[in-house]
């Protein structure tokens, strides 16, 4: 008798402590505001957010005093278990998602990349097989359109309608491998519009890169420095501009992956003034956390470890890219985690064009962003949440189930300690690879707890992930952020579908026409815009924007005198003027 009773009692205890969780005394941060509030979680879902909550007995309590309770990070760009350029990435779906969770990321979106001529659905099934039993956190998938034919078009439809895919990546680079020509890009984008899927673009001019590479090799430049020389900023910016023009002609929204240069940001900024449909810009932790000076390192291993495409840029680029993220020229930060062991990077020992492309980032993305953007004062914690989580949730139609601390949302949380100090190192990271491009970077701010679907996976600094615990997230088409913007005339029209949880507070949007919103200093007196995120990528321009950088606010109020098609929710900070953050 004693055995079964004890077992069942233990079972109850385990069940209750796993299923019920109270996070007390923390400061909840969303993209549009912060509040001191407790968070109660049951069965993987956030059930209550507020003060003086009534909580059932047997609930585990985490004291979050001094911690920021933020939505877990969403990294919309990873490559786990990818075979590329004759090598296979070091991080598989287990080690990759384990590293993600260690750094505060609770959802990743990986890329299915079919071989030329391979069925897209077959490649998708292969990716599901690789990932499903290994992921430690939830994941979704983009599918690459690496070749084109009528059968590919049919399979895109099948993937959207039957397999939960709502985004397709195209390459303007990797000539003779994944690259599509402009005519093909037009057709893929048209198909995306028909399916209400979001087209993603790797924007670099592959033909110029191929020719430059031939010339550099002929001139005896074979080392990793040749990688950057073969594809300078102009080569990226031209492709960004061309991709935007093609999207505009096809009347398509567009998402540019891994924007790496100031010139590319400038091209995006210009395009956005004329773009008819939403335009998203993604950058990488690598871009803000390091720079292209490493390509000149005499050690091949060191220089090659930094090779990715587009390449890292000049030393002034990281600060400029942080600024672009802070001011909504860019909306999202990803990692493009694509790690290769030293022996694989050596495939390009005598020819830089054969170095497998890719770096780490899924683990350190959030801490690097915090260090480079929040600790420097470029960004407030709300904007941090927007670019590291909420904006990706919106773009890929996971919002507000993901990317938000709110009743009804998935209990994916990063309990962030803004005082926790550490030095990034390959000796301490959780990647499979033995090199870290952020080696030696001192960061202040890291997660102390990470909760994945209600399970405490980083527990007071100790990593306790479970292989296969995560699940595949089907992403439906017609994300409002990509396809709903033109119809939107008020916050209400952006309401989530009936089957998704409603957020606690209305998000901030500019919407309607593709004009830039300008707010005068007079209009801004005593007011702060709530959050800085705009799902359509529309910008809020000077002088209003700067005034908003360090603001906290609570009471909603509509600004008068703005274009009637533009609805901006503003909040009056307690006491009239902006106060400190936390
Ligand atoms: N970015 C990179 O260098 N490697 C991963 C493949 C890609 O995203 O282009
Ligand atoms: Zn790419
Ligand atoms: Zn990539």
UniProtKB/TrEMBL annotation:
InterPro entries referenced in this protein's UniProt entry, alphabetically: Amidohydro-rel (IPR006680), Hydantoinase/dihydroPyrase (IPR011778), Metal-dep_hydrolase_composite (IPR011059), Metal_Hydrolase (IPR032466), Metallo-dep_Hydrolases_sf (IPR050378)
EC number(s) on file: 3.5.2.2
Maturation and modification: Carbamylation allows a single lysine to coordinate two divalent metal cations.
GO BP terms, alphabetized: pyrimidine nucleobase catabolic process
Tree of life domain: Eukaryota
Biased composition (Polar residues): 508-523, 547-557
Pfam families per record: Amidohydro_1
Residues modified as N6-carboxylysine: 169
Protein name: dihydropyrimidinase
Natural source organism: Vanessa tameamea
Gene responsible for this protein: LOC113393662
């Amino acid at each position: 008798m004693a055995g079964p009773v004890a077992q069942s009692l233990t079972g109850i205890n385990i069940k209750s402590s796993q299923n019920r969780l109270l996070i007390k005394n923390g400061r909840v941060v969303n993209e549009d505001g912060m509040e001191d509030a407790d968070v109660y979680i049951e069965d993987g879902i956030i059930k209550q957010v507020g003060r003086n909550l009534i909580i059932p007995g047997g609930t585990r309590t985490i004291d979050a005093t001094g911690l920021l309770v933020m939505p877990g990070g969403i990294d919309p760009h990873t490559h786990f278990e990818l075979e590329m350029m004759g090598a296979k990435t070091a991080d598989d779906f287990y080690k990759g998602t384990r590293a993600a969770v260690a750094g505060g990321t609770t959802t990743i979106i990986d890329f299915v990349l079919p071989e030329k001529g391979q069925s897209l659905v077959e490649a998708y099934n292969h990716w599901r097989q690789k990932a499903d039993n290994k992921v430690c956190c939830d994941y979704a998938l983009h599918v690459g359109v690496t070749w084109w034919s009528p059968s590919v078009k049919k399979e895109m439809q099948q993937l959207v309608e039957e397999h939960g895919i709502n985004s397709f990546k195209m390459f303007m680079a990797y000539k003779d491998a994944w690259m599509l020509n402009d005519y093909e890009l037009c057709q893929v984008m048209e198909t995306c519009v028909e399916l209400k899927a979001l087209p993603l673009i790797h924007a670099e001019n592959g033909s110029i890169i191929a020719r430059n590479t031939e010339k550099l090799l002929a001139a005896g430049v074979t080392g990793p420095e040749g990688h950057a020389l073969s594809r300078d900023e102009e080569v990226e910016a031209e492709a960004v501009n061309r991709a935007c023009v093609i999207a505009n002609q096809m009347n398509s929204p567009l998402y540019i992956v891994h924007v790496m240069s100031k010139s590319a940001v400038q091209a995006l900024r210009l395009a956005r003034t004329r773009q008819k449909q939403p335009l998203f810009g993604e950058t990488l932790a690598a871009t803000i956390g390091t720079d292209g000076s490493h390509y000149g390192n005499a050690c091949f291993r060191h220089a090659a470890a930094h090779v990715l495409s587009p390449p890292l840029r000049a030393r002034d680029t990281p600060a400029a890219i942080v600024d672009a993220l802070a001011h909504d020229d860019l909306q999202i930060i990803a990692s493009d985690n694509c790690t290769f062991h030293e022996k694989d990077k050596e495939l390009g020992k005598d020819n830089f064009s054969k170095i497998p492309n890719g770096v780490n980032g899924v683990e350190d993305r959030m801490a690097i962003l915090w260090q480079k953007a929040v600790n420097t004062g470029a960004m407030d914690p709300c904007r941090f949440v927007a670019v590291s989580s909420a904006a990706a949730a919106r773009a890929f139609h996971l919002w507000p189930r993901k990317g938000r601390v709110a009743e009804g949302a998935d209990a994916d949380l990063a309990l962030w300690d803004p005082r926790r100090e550490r030095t990034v190192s390959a000796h301490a990271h959780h990647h499979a690879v033995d090199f870290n491009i952020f080696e030696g970077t001192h960061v202040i701010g890291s997660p102390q707890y990470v909760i994945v679907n209600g399970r405490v996976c980083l527990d007071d600094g100790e990593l306790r992930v479970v292989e296969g615990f995560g699940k595949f997230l089907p992403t439906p088409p017609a994300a409002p952020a990509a396809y709903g913007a033109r119809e939107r005339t008020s916050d209400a029209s952006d309401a989530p579908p009936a089957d998704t949880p409603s957020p606690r507070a209305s998000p901030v949007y500019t919407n309607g026409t593709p004009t830039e919103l300008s707010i005068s200093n007079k209009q801004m007196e005593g007011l702060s815009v709530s959050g800085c995120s705009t799902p359509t990528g529309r910008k809020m321009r000077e002088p209003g924007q700067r005034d908003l950088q360090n603001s906290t606010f609570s009471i909603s109020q509509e600004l008068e005198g703005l274009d009637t098609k533009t609805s901006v929710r503003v909040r009056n900070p307690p006491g009239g003027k902006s106060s400190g953050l936390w």
